[in-house]
# Entry
Amino acid sequence: MTRTEDRLADALGAAAAAVPEETLRPLVAPPPPRPRPVWLAPAAAAASVVVLAGLVTAAVAVAGSGAGKPAGPLPVPAAALAAVPTYYAEADLDQRITVRSTATSKVTATLPIRGPLPAGLGAVAAAGHGLFFAAGVAPHSQTEQLYRFRVTAAGKVTGLTPVPGGRLSARQRVDGLAAAPGGASVALSYSTVWHGNPSGPDRLIVIDTNTGARTVWRGGTRGENGRNAVFGVASMSWTGDGQRLAVLGQWCPGTGPHAYAETNIFCQGSGGQAHRIAEAWLIRPAGGGGLLSRGQLLLRQSDRYPYLAQALISPDGRVLTAMVLTGPVVGQNPGGDGIIPDNMTIRQIAVPSGRPLGVLYRRHLGSTFETGASPDFLGLTGDSTRQHWIVIAELGHDPFNGWLYRGRLVPLINVTGLNDPGFEAW
Amino acid sequence: MKDMSYPLPAAGPVPAASSRHAVTLLFRERHAELVRLAVLLLGSRPAAEDVVQDVFTRLCTRDYLAVGGNPLAYVRTAVVNGCRSALRRTSAAGRAGERQNLLAPVAAGSAEDEVLLAEDRRQVIAALQALPARRREVLVLRYWLGLTDTEIAEVLGISRATVSSTAARALAVLARHLGEDA
# Structure
């Protein structure tokens, strides 16, 4: 460097250092777009005007075709509110891990751990009866650790302790968590960070929370585990006995130089475009680790279920509650990024027959600028009974988050883009 | 799979992320850097923060990930362009007044050393601010962000050769202003 260059670099460094990060004005997210007109199906409209004495009122997003925005207050019976878990845990995009009230969405407790930076949210899972697990980074630590904690009747956190065998390496980022009822086992999926970004296929670890013993699982042999494979664990859920784990895996076909890069529901590669593949398997973690694809096949993505975003098993192992996207794809760039099917349904499916049992919720997603593997930000969480569901949809212009009540969505958090929920568990 | 990383350039596949998340996370990670970049280009911190906020707002309402390739370069380009627009809107007299407070107090040993170092830096910054916008941008991106000429070319939307020649000319002018040989 010449002297001029030295002096210039020094002066620029000093000028930049005169702008301390902590003194910057926080960024302000733009307000959400104005809601589109909402059309209610006659039955839904009729239901919305029923007023019951002693009801708790909550703003509700309207279910059904053509809906997509909060549609004003809808009475939620106190009994319905009483039946759902009083509190839920949340890992948000500010890397905070909190406990919130279901009725008010207000934070009742904040855990002293956070999601890791860069490229990590932290994660939460519920084991029932107030027992929760969270993956996060403690102050002054660089690596993620699995913790357990309890939420009191007042919504406070007690007994936050590390789980034996729950420490990850510095390159591993938790991107999914599921606790067996009672908390004896926790399944954890993670990606590996290279050059600041998660890369390569997801892996799954099942941890015995008493002994710390682990079993390790990976995809299959059809492109899920190649060096450049794009294999993601989309959802995990335990049966009621805590012995079986349902895993929804998504991946692109091909390996090595013919591997596809994931661009939403499609996979792009040197061989052209292909649809992403999804299968739900049921494994018995006690039998040791191995290939997820060697578990019992519960459901496969098909013409009937063209895009499986989430799939959670019932306590008895006979029913999958799946988030399914159907219909014409929407987005700004047909055939490439920004494309997802525009109808979302949360439906129950008998397994392994695939027979449809009913629809819990449906919503027209409409036009969205969503890109990347956006359906991964369609989250479905059930309580330990799999009777009560939380939905997270981080979708471009129309994000939403709430719990299901009689085919409708009771909002939990006003999703704004800055502190949106990443994981929720109850 | 829930992964919230923003898609910085990488050899592997672009990780899963919603556009909204990607914008938020990229700005969370790079907020200070982007404001500092804007400060160095504009010479005004309030204006720099406004530029970065504007870029953030615009990206929140459009298909950010559709930019493809190198999102960080895209955001830097947006900030650089925002700074140019801000400079066009601001009077030369006003800019000169705001630029006087760019440097923080220095700690260089004795009080005399501090004064000398601060004065030296002020001279350099003043000479930098006197350069045309394009030359200033090239120098800031190269000597503060440490970008290669290829990366600078991507951010500014010009050829690598233009970056090299612009930098050479800018350094020559700077050296002349500072009474040196470049």
Q: What stands out?
A: Chain A has one domain: 3-425. Chain A touches chain B through 78 residues (CB under 8 Å). The radius of gyration of chain A is 22 Å. Residues 32-73, 256-263, 332-338, 369-376 of chain A have pLDDT under 50 and may be disordered.
